[in-house]
Amino acid sequence: MRFFFFHLMPYAPLDPDYDKTHKSSWVTLPNSYYDPELGAELYNRYLDELEYAAELGFEGIGVNEHHQNAYGLMPCPNVFAGMLARRIPAAAKIAILGRALPVLANPLSVAEEFAVLDNVTRGRIITGFVRGIGAEYHSLAVNPTESHARFQEAHDLIVQAWTRPGPFPFEGKYYHFPHVNLWPRVYQKPHPPIWIPSQGSRETIEFAADPARRYVYLQTATPAATLLKTMQAYRDEALRRGYESSPDQLGWSVKIYVAETDEIARREAKPHIEAFANKFLRMPQEMLLPPGYSSLASMKGLMQAKKTITGGTRTMEQMIEQGTFICGSPQTVIDQLADYQRRGGFNIVMAGLHFGTLPHELTRKALELFAREVMPALEGAVPDGGLRAAE
Predict the structure, then answer these.
(1) Most buried residue, 35, 211, 294, 320, by most Cβ within 10 Å?
(2) Buried b / exposed e across 33-69, counting CB within 10 Å, b at 16+?
């Protein structure tokens, strides 16, 4: 099992009563709720936590992209990767999970930014490409019905910019460049690894599992039952396309908290994970999944899975039961991760050891216990690979 520390960088001082007058912490929440003095402190604290995780021996650290919300203050993840690149240990990777390609005006700039980071880190960048959740299309006024087509065209442009000798022209439906001639060229050959985080749409699984790509598929923000189905769906798609996928092509992004005992862990985590679920993640269904964002078949599955996001108030106990949160002593966390790995067949864990309003001292404690107790017990663990999701 391979471990990364993932940080969302939420605006922790958010007034918890905002939902008395506003439906969501996304898109339409007035930015008067943001205090730049507090935000400056938060940014530096969060960067310290990412650097500390790298020092503790995580294989890498993860950042991501969200726009115009209190849930995650990272509209430009390449900037954060650049701030971290020269400060973390030389063995640690930086996973940018990921750039939301369809909502960006110029994918060639993304290719350039990643190429610079890949050179500065001498090949320690992992690139993540996402379509972006529905809220991003509201924030940046992009037509969600074009999501898949824009994503694939932007992806093709970036990969060609990394791998084809330039200059060459690129003429697509959405992007037109008479001269693609990337300076600098990427450090890794043929290009940096590409991971595809997703909420579980069928189209995204098929895209990632394509034998010409074999990209890492990273399941995010779903109950354990959905995780197991999507892991199996990737394996089935790979077999259908003529090859057997590796557990290193499958990952899970999950919120985790570890403390000295189960009782201490649950007591310390409860107010902060419930703030994450009920305040920071709060959004109406039409904001999360706008019409045209996914095919009808994928939309049905996503709406069922996302009831845990958009439906009602959730307790920590419910989240633990659903498998959207792992919480307990080191041994409890070890046992639960090992069980999910056995049933899901994945090797990569993107551990969200910070969430919501969790304070700095508890974040550091959880990082230390996870690195000292959990990771050594599971680093040699491998999935069975023989169980179906329904079992």
Answers:
(1) 294
(2) eeeeeeeeebeeebbebbbbbbebebbbbbbbbbbbb
